[in-house]
Amino acid sequence: MNTFTKKCIINISELFNQGDIPMNSIKRVKTGIPELDKLLHGGYVKDSSIVVAGGVGTGKTILSLQFLWTGAKKYDEPGLLITMDESPSELRKEAAMFGWDLKELEDENLLAIIDVATPRAGLPSDERYALREVDLRQIIETVYNTQKEMNAQRAVIDSLSALGFHYESLGKIRSSIFQLTAFLNELEITTLLTTESPNNSVMSRYGIEEFLAQGVIQLFLKDDETGNLQRSFIVRKMRSTPHSLNRYFFEISEKGIVILSS
Ligand SMILES: Nc1ncnc2c1ncn2[C@@H]1O[C@H](COP(=O)(O)OP(=O)(O)OP(=O)(O)O)[C@@H](O)[C@H]1O
Ligand SMILES: [Mg+2]
What we know:
- With 262 residues, this protein is α/β, with parallel strands linked by helices.
- The chain has one domain: P-loop containing nucleotide triphosphate hydrolases (Rossmann fold), CATH 3.40.50.
- Helix content is 37%, strand content 25%.
- It has helices at residues 3-19, 34-39, 60-75, 88-96, 102-107, 117-120, 136-150, 160-163, 170-186, 209-212; strands at residues 28-29, 44-45, 49-54, 79-83, 111-115, 129-130, 154-158, 190-196, 215-223, 229-238, 247-253, 256-261.
- The strands form two sheets. Strands 6-5-4-7-8-3-9-10-11-12 form a ten-stranded mixed beta sheet, with helices on both faces. It has a two-stranded antiparallel ribbon with strand order 1-2.
- A hairpin with a 2-residue loop joins strand 11 (247-253) and strand 12 (256-261).
- The radius of gyration is 20 Å and the shape is globular.
- Bound molecules: adenosine-5'-triphosphate and magnesium ion.
């Protein structure tokens, strides 16, 4: 075999190897829940957008806070949180119950909380980061500027459902969510987007969120056989990740979300 033929064979085999991307070459970001990291082969795909869907009180905000807290505290990955439903002070109090001191992270520039909840309620915000009004362009600009300013690698938008109250038609809401996710896909940032599931069979409020994100985790509060409510979740979709479609039960403990079993 001459040198030219050898070179061609090597190049062709390299080409095939590139097409067949091995699982461990995909960069992953820890979710904040060790059992979920295992289920997802190490965590969420880096720089992807994940929808966290669920009904009222299913744990969407706590799961999001756990993601930001773990990232900043354990992995030195700064995060930003756009809060549309709960005020930053409510969130700090809620997080403190799990031993997560958000103020400490904010003081170390490892977390920025962008207050949209207070302006939504028509009140002035005295937060360091706040929007004047709920407007998609302002949200995009703020995410972009904050991400550059603090090198944020994680983001949470809690919730997409709130965005919808500020647009008069379903078409406008959908196109604004489309623009937001398209923008996030261009940034080097891993984002959780929470959305309200109207019921257990309808995943998202606007029927579009789950199609636009690379991953979907749905949280449930469902009756067990004795009539008590049980918390569970299903990973509905996670691109570039072979994953189980089992239902996993979890509880909210004093340390946050803990997965119990499948
Ligand atoms: N410190 C705590 N310890 C245990 N469980 C808690 C604690 N704090 C809150 N919870 C539980 O978590 C629920 C709220 O979780 P979370 O705020 O994440 O839900 P959510 O899905 O974001 O709700 P919403 O739809 O109202 O935004 C509470 O209703 C309660 O059942
Ligand atoms: Mg919430």
